[in-house]
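FAQ

Q: What does a record look like?
A: Structure on top, sequence underneath. For example:
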């Protein structure tokens, strides 16, 4: 029998990593045009309104000045680690690695930015000389359903009270009580919370929910005035008060959270993604690529009106 020399065949594509989506990025007031010196955004805050007197009998009325203030937030700079593509790789592999690397840099930046913007919306009063604050307790709702399992990080499963439509109902009441506009309200649910929401709906509620779906724009449905979005991870809190900074090691003592907001009550400021390249580097015998973007955001009002966190906790 003749010897057979097996040949190896390589596909002319590469399977890219799966990443978290960012349906929330475009659903905020865009304040990029107000960036000062490329790094800081200032948001003026109206002072107290004038008093109203019924059947005024004393003249002249006393004029008072309205004491306006402002809040500021800084843009953070997000940079990737440089990636080296050797000349030998470009010559020998069957797919366009340069194109894949550039796409990976952009996707990695945007996933990281998506995580950080959500954090900035619940933590980030950054006036000069003032410590960063967080969303007040009055704007936090805790889930009250039956215990269910949440995977809050890879390999970390915890038991927390399930999310239900009643939690969205509470968020609606809270925003109504704050006189938040009823148009442009959104709720971004962690994937397990989204499934728990669906499980809690009656047949009639489910039909109404699905009738408002706009999957092309990432909207799964509408309930209690909120357009519902879904993401594999939204926010994590320590207890029910302190949001966890993205990139922090997650422990089983932390709690997953969803976020509700009205579009004009949160802000985002962003710059263009800047790609960098050093082609034909003699020290690396190949090309080097990296990327950078500046982006930041915050709740537009110092009292966090129009921003509500719903945290899955475990009853004591």
């Amino acid at each position: 029998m003749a010897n057979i020399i097996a040949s190896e065949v390589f596909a002319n594509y590469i399977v890219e990593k799966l990443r978290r989506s960012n349906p929330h990025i475009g659903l905020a007031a865009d304040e990029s045009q107000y960036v000062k010196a490329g790094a800081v955004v200032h948001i003026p805050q109206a002072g107290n309104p004038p008093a109203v007197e019924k059947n005024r009998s004393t003249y002249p009325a006393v004029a008072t000045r309205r004491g306006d203030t402002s809040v500021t937030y800084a843009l953070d700079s997000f940079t990737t680690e440089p990636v080296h593509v050797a000349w030998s790789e470009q010559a020998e592999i069957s797919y366009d690695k340069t194109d894949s690397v550039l796409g990976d840099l952009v996707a990695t930046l945007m996933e990281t930015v998506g995580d950080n913007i959500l954090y900035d919306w619940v933590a980030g009063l950054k006036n000069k000389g003032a410590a960063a604050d967080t969303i007040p307790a009055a704007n936090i709702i805790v889930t009250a359903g039956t215990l269910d399992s949440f995977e809050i990080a890879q390999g970390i499963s915890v038991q927390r009270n399930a999310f239900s439509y009643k939690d969205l109902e509470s968020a609606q009441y809270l925003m109504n009580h704050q006189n938040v506009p009823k148009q442009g309200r959104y709720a971004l649910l962690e994937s397990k919370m989204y499934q728990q929401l669906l499980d809690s709906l009656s047949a009639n509620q489910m039909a109404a929910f699905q009738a408002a779906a706009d999957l092309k724009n990432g909207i799964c449905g509408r309930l209690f005035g909120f357009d519902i979005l879904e993401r594999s991870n939204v926010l994590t809190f320590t207890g029910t008060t302190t949001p966890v900074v993205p990139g922090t090691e997650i422990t089983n003592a932390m709690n997953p959270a969803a976020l509700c907001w009205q579009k004009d009550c949160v802000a985002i400021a962003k710059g263009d993604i800047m790609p960098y390249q050093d082609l034909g580097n003699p020290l690396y015998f190949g090309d080097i690529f990296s990327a950078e973007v500046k982006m930041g955001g915050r709740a537009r009002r110092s009292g966090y009106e129009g921003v509500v966190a719903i945290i899955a906790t475990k009853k004591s």
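Q: Is there anything notable about this one?
A: DSSP finds five helices and 19 strands in the chain.
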